[in-house]
Amino acid sequence: MTNSGYDPASEGAETDFAKKMSYGDYLQLDALLGAQHPISDAHDEMLFIIQHQTSELWMRLAIHEISAARRAIARDEVPPAMKMLARVSRIFEQLNNAWDVLRTMTPSEYTHFRSRLGQSSGFQSHQYRLIEYLLGNRNHAMLKPHAHDADVMALLEAELATPSLYDEVLRLAHRRGLEMPATVLARDVRNTHHFDEGVLQAWRRVYEAPESNWTLYELAEKLVDFEDYFRRWRFNHVTTVERVIGFKRGTGGTGGVSYLKRMLEIELFPELWRVRTIL
Fold it and tell me: Using CA of residue 130, residue 136, residue 137, residue 141, what is the dihedral sign?
């Protein structure tokens, strides 16, 4: 019987990596695949670890894209910023889909290792906090879980001192003739932007005549599209937690589902949602 197996080397594919960079070398797979260390013998703990590790990787990419989009908007380079924001929406679509995998773990399976998690909890993710700060939800109380890590604190404090993505969008709109309230443009960027009637009326002019304000109109819709995915991610987080632990307190001491439901009330770009009501 002849061996009919395909040999990629027959077409010139490289197969000797003794002195060359391989796929695994480039991606540092030894470190990546060696980072899963369950602390119990529960079968489902591997799922729990990988779910959260991959979420952190996607969040790292989201931070990379949101930060670059903000810089581009500050330079009046809107088209590449919109491309980046579209990518962030797709990133959060992936994060949403990941909840479906985690929901295959039943409450009984989770109880086999939940007590081994100590006080660790997702709300302690500094990357999630950085995303919230980048987008403008600047809750200073959420710095406290990171007080033990000087490098992370410096990263988050630096972000608080920088205009958020939405701040830069409002400044861009002002530069392009859409007058924004001086109090909004000059506000302390360390604090969360709250709904402003003047900003609402400015966006109303865009939405009532999109053909005359197409760039701002399209950018606004990119922000709404992203927040739509972000809200779905938060909602799926709530339903997954309720499905797995019910109304128990979170491992980090939060109210669990009650805490997560409060997060559903947060609006990142309030005027862009409310403008729909007044059109």
Answer: positive
